[in-house]
Structure formats: structure tokens, C-alpha cells
Design a protein that fits this description.
N-(1-d-carboxylethyl)-l-norvaline Dehydrogenase, domain 2, 19 strands, globular, Rossmann fold, 2-enoyl-CoA Hydratase, Chain A, domain 1
Length: 647
């Protein structure tokens, strides 16, 4: 049974056991109603403790039920039923109380939690708002300000913050069950507290709240659920509790049928399916304790920090003492920034530094389980590095390249046992970006593949397997739509028009702004590498090359597609003149492009190349392509990805 009732003296213990995360499925909802009726009818029971088995409290609604006809009892009715109890209910919370789980807890009279528990209403991430009273009860417990962050931004809070804000009545260090029983015993003779839905709103700063709501609306970039969350909280302020609950339910049901919610649910499941690689289904996770990183540039330093933060020991290798010193400084600076922002404690900071060493001798990698190469994007240089690694590392160490475009199979030929070579394509900044492309060349051993998957899991990244081709999944698609954008600016559009169209669609940044941010010299180096094999019949736009020849590498040089002053990009007449002259030189009659035409062109290219990638077996499934584009390239999550959108 998903819900059971036991007794300890006059206290009933209602236990939810619905692994893996105790989702509020129909069986759980019905079980809670049955438990309510049983405990109400039993005169010997004077209080009820609600607790969960396993690793967490109820971590949300059962998303798998969203596409099915709803079954009674509905979650809002369960929460209202709990609020109506004539005996105190105490929610004892460990792990995470998320979404419907937190709404259930707020239906109880009291809430206590262990110190590691977290609380959130993250429905906005699925294109929804809370639908079981969360927008009405939470602001009455913690105030509208904290509630806005939790509901409209989906930000969870810690047990300490929940206790300080008024969501929790107590926080305990150990023996949550025992503490909950003791707490319940102390409450049996006291009058029941006012239900959360009937509490008055705490005092709050209306101007500050309005300002925060305006900011959320402006940053939503077309996503409906954050705006709906603001509307629901505004209703709480203006309406009675009953009316606000009814309005919340109407908003929830409307959003549930919104294509944006369908898209967000698609990505939710796609991300969880991406890391399931059939080739290693029966392979035990390999031992992973020590990692080597070759190269201390921006990417290498980011990879090193990501590994350190996950508890791995890291050895960084650079070509000489000066380069090593610069690489070490990058790592130290990133960790210092994390300490300053309170992301890590002083003790954690010290432990991370002690787990990090630098060297110029490959021999120091003799005990490494995995080595990740992150040097300049040159096949010749990478071959030299892998030949050295082949001599220095133990035979079962996995060797990985962070290349963005190069053929992993060719790199693997540099070692005696190519089966131990894979690609691990990180996205910059590597210690922040969630995506990791696991590039699997022909002949890669299950052990090597499993090591790559284990690293992704250890780093808490979304790991997407990819076959070998130029650019793998993401960069191959990006190169294609970037080329299409080049065609459009030569045919009549301007970079600022293309970038604006992409931002209006929901991208955080346009393609030309992105190139300036990343550094135009990076893609220039790739184009120069491809020049010898480029199809002369294929149209080639060399405006970006000419910008690089002028030293316009982007933000880092103060100019690229745009001119940068005070940290802001400005349209540069020099770039506009270059574009117009190139069009004229090729005899192109320029024409205007509408926003819709720009985005249709980009999306068509994404879908066409994505289909090619699927047909060639580079990606295992269409949803993997969506995961890559959403998490690595800024494709708006609420649109589901190019394959989902165009299907």
C-alpha cells in the first residue's frame, strides 16, 4: 500500500511509501483521504504524524498522470480535507517537499523538518503554477516576497530559511520521527492553529513586490507560467482566500493545456531519458576518484573546478611553469568567487584547494582514473597530447578529449588501445553549464563509455550521448543555422535584426551577440581548418572572417559584430558598411526580412540538420537533440526544442 497507518500510543503515524520520490499519485491521494477518515473516526487517536518512507518527503505530483483523465480525489481536495481535521496533523519532512508535496505539508496544522530538507514550488519549470492552494497558503506563511521567489522563479529554500520565514514550526538535527512524535504529544491538548488558508497575510512592502513582479514579467521572454504566478499572487492580495483558491485552480487548469506546459514536460522527461545508454545498461559504474585535466585555459580551468566541486581530486597539466601558474590562478579565482558568494564554506574551500595540484610532467597522472584533454582545437596538438598520455597513464585509465568539432576516432588512433578514448564536450563555463555531450567513437569500450556517463552523473550534468561527426550534435546544428544567418545578413538583414528576432523568440542572446561573447576567433579557427575541404559549390560568406582579420574578436577586444562600451553592445556603422559592401561586391540586391521569416529560416535549418543527425545515428533519439539545444544553446525551454516544435 502507498499509505499506511500505525499507532504509537495516542499518536497515529501516517506513512507515505511510493518510491522513488513519493509522488502524489492517485493511490497516495486516496490513501491520505482514507487515513484522514480512519484517524478522525478513532477516538483513541489524538494527533497524527505524516511522514514518508525512503529518501524524501513527497517530491511533487505524479507528472506521468498529467496526460491522463484526472481521478478523484484531486490534490486540492486532499489538502482542504487535511486542513479540516479536528486533530492536529504534523508533517515530518526530510529530503525535499516540492510542489504538491509542499502543498500537502501546508494542509497540515504543523510542519517540522530535518536540517537538510528543502522546500519549493517549482511548477513554473513545467509551465504551471501550484494547483492545490500553494499560491494561497504559502504567502500566508512566509509572506508574499518569499512566496514570489519560490513560485514565480521556482527557487527552493532550505530548512533554516523555511523556519525563519514561518513555513516550519521546528527544525531537528536527528531522529525526525521521534521528534515528530514528541512534538505531536505536546500539541494534543492545545487548540488547533488557524489553517494556513485562513491566516492573514503578513505585512509586506507593496512597492518592492510590484517591482519584483515587473522584473519577472520582463524576464519571462514569452513564457506564460511566471506571469501567471504573478497574477495568482496578486489575486491573493486582492481576493478572499476562497476566491483566490478558485482563481488559482482556473489558472492551473488553463496552463496545463498550454502548449508551453506540454513542451516543458517534454523536456523534463527527455532530460531523464538522455543518459540511459543501452551499451552500458549492464556495466557496473567504474571507480572514479582522480581526474587529470590537460590545459589550464578557460575551459580546462572550468572542467577542473567542476570536478573539484563534485569531490574528485584533480591534477592540472600545462606545457610550462608560466602556463601552469596562469591555469592554477584561474581555478583559484573561480573557487574564491564561489566562497565570496557563499556557495561554498571556508572548510569546503580549503578542502577543494587541497584536492587540486598542478604539474608540467605527464608522469603525475599515473594514478588518474580519467584524463580530460582541453587544449587548443588542433588535431596535431591533440595527437601529441594523447601520445604522451598513452605513455604516462595506467592501461585502464580513460582518456577523453573536450574537442568541439574534431574527429574523436582520429584522436583515438594516437594511443595503443583506442577503445579507451571518448569525447567529453563540455560547455563554457564548464563548472556552471549543465550539458555534457558524451561522444562515443566506433570501438569505444563499455568501460570508457561508462566512465564518461559516471563523470556526468558525478558532476550532476545532463549527459547526452553522441556519435562522431563534425560538431557532434549541438555544434553541427549551430554551425548550420549560423551559416543561414550569415546568408540572411548578406541578403538584406542586419545582425541586430537577427539577434532581436532570436531574443523575441525566447533565446537569451542572438547568434551574433553569442559569437562576440564566445570570441569570434574561435569559430574563425574552425573555418580555417575546414577551408581545404570546403565544397566550392557551397555558398560561403566571409564577413565574419574579415571582422577577425580586423582584430574584431568580440567583447574581449571591445569590438566584433558590435562595438562595446561600458559593457554594452552598440551597432557599429563600420560593420554595417562592411556588410553592405560585401552584398554589393557579390551583386546581391538586398531585401528586408521580417522577424517571422528570420525565425522560420533558423528553425527550418535546425530541424533539417537534426533530422540528418538522427538518420545518421549520431543522436539516439529526437528528444536528445532537443535536450542539447535547450541546455547548451539557449533554445527556449518552454518551446520544447527544435525537434519537438517542428514535429
Amino acid at each position: 500500500m502507498s499509505v499506511t497507518v500505525t499507532t504509537e500510543g495516542a499518536i497515529a503515524v501516517v506513512t507515505i511509501d511510493n518510491p522513488p520520490v513519493n509522488a502524489a499519485s492517485h493511490a497516495v491521494r486516496q490513501g491520505l483521504i482514507d487515513a484522514f477518515e480512519q484517524t478522525q473516526a478513532d477516538g483513541a487517536i489524538r494527533a497524527v504524524v505524516l511522514i514518508c518512507a525512503g529518501r524524501t518527503f513527497v517530491a511533487g505530483a505524479d507528472v506521468r498522470e498529467f496526460g491522463k483523465p484526472p481521478l478523484e480525489p484531486h490534490l486540492p481536495d486532499v489538502v482542504v480535507t487535511l486542513e479540516s481535521a479536528t486533530k492536529p496533523w504534523i508533517a515530518a519532512i526530510h529530503g525535499t517537499a516540492l510542489g504538491g508535496g509542499l502543498e500537502i505539508a501546508m494542509g497540515c496544522h504543523y510542519r517540522i523538518a530535518d536540517t537538510s530538507a528543502k522546500f519549493g514550488l517549482p511548477e513554473v519549470n513545467l509551465g504551471l503554477i501550484p494547483g492545490a492552494g500553494g499560491t494561497v497558503r504559502l504567502p500566508r506563511l512566509v509572506g508574499p516576497g518569499i512566496a514570489l521567489d519560490m513560485i514565480a522563479k521556482g527557487k527552493p529554500i532550505t530548512a533554516a530559511a523555511a523556519h525563519a520565514g514561518g513555513l516550519l514550526d521546528d527544525v531537528v538535527d536527528a531522529d525526525l520521527r521521534g521528534a515528530a512524535l514528541k512534538f505531536a504529544t505536546e500539541k494534543v491538548d492545545l487548540p488547533l492553529p488557524v489553517p494556513a488558508s485562513a491566516k492573514p497575510l503578513p505585512a509586506f512592502d507593496q512597492q518592492s513586490l510590484s517591482r519584483d513582479m515587473a522584473q519577472i514579467r520582463s524576464k519571462s521572454r514569452g513564457q506564460n507560467s511566471p506571469v501567471a504566478a504573478c497574477e495568482a499572487l496578486t489575486n491573493v492580495i486582492k481576493m478572499t482566500s476562497a476566491d483566490a483558491l478558485a482563481a488559482e485552480r482556473d489558472l492551473f487548469l488553463t496552463l496545463k493545456q498550454d502548449p508551453q506546459s506540454l513542451a516543458l514536460r517534454h523536456i523534463f522527461f527527455a532530460e531523464r531519458a538522455a543518459g540511459k545508454i543501452p551499451a552500458i545498461a549492464d556495466v557496473a559504474p567504474p571507480s572514479l576518484n582522480s581526474v587529470g585535466v590537460i590545459g589550464g585555459g578557460t575551459m580546462g580551468a572550468g572542467i577542473a573546478v567542476a570536478c573539484l566541486l563534485s569531490g574528485l581530486s584533480v591534477t592540472m597539466i600545462e606545457r610550462d611553469a608560466d602556463a601552469l601558474s596562469a591555469g592554477e590562478k584561474r581555478v583559484i579565482d573561480i573557487l574564491a568567487g564561489s566562497l565570496k558568494r557563499g556557495l561554498i564554506s571556508k572548510d569546503k574551500h580549503a578542502a577543494l584547494l587541497s584536492a587540486f595540484v598542478g604539474a608540467t610532467d605527464y608522469a603525475t597522472l599515473g594514478d588518474a582514473d580519467l584524463v580530460i584533454e582541453a587544449v587548443f582545437e588542433s588535431m596535431d596538438i591533440k595527437r601529441i597530447v594523447f601520445e604522451a598520455l598513452d605513455q604516462a597513464t595506467k592501461p585502464d585509465a580513460v582518456l577523453a578529449s573536450n574537442t568541439s568539432y574534431l574527429d574523436i576516432g582520429e584522436i583515438a588512433k594516437s594511443v595503443r588501445d583506442p577503445a579507451r578514448v571518448i569525447g567529453l564536450h563540455f560547455f563554457s563555463p564548464a563548472h556552471i553549464m549543465k550539458l555534457l555531450e558524451l561522444v562515443i567513437p566506433d570501438g569505444a569500450s563499455p568501460h570508457a563509455i561508462a566512465m564518461g556517463a559516471a563523470l556526468g552523473k558525478r558532476l550532476r550534468k545532463i549527459t547526452v550521448p553522441s556519435g562522431v561527426c563534425d560538431g557532434f550534435i549541438g555544434n553541427r546544428i549551430m554551425s548550420a543555422y549560423r551559416r543561414a544567418c550569415d546568408y540572411m545578413i548578406e541578403d538584406g538583414a542586419l545582425p541586430t535584426e537577427v539577434d532581436a528576432a532570436m531574443r523575441d523568440f525566447g533565446f537569451p542572446i542572438g547568434i551574433f551577440e553569442m559569437q562576440d561573447l564566445a570570441g569570434n576567433d574561435i569559430s574563425w579557427a574552425m573555418r580555417k581548418r575546414q577551408a581545404a575541404t570546403r565544397d566550392p559549390a557551397q555558398r560561403y560568406v566571409d564577413i565574419a572572417d574579415k571582422l577577425c582579420e580586423m582584430g574584431r574578436f568580440g567583447r574581449k577586444t571591445g569590438s566584433g559584430w558590435y562595438r562595446y562600451e561600458d559593457g554594452k553592445g552598440h551597432v557599429d556603422p563600420e560593420v554595417t558598411a562592411l556588410i553592405l559592401s560585401e552584398s554589393a561586391r557579390k551583386g546581391i540586391t538586398r531585401r528586408a526580412f521580417t522577424t517571422d521569416e528570420i525565425m522560420t529560416t533558423i528553425l527550418d535549418v535546425m530541424y533539417t540538420v537534426g533530422t540528418q543527425i538522427l538518420d545518421e545515428g549520431i543522436a539516439a533519439q529526437a528528444s536528445d537533440i532537443d535536450v542539447v539545444m535547450v541546455n547548451g544553446y539557449g533554445f527556449p525551454r518552454w518551446r520544447g526544442g527544435p525537434m519537438f516544435l517542428k514535429a
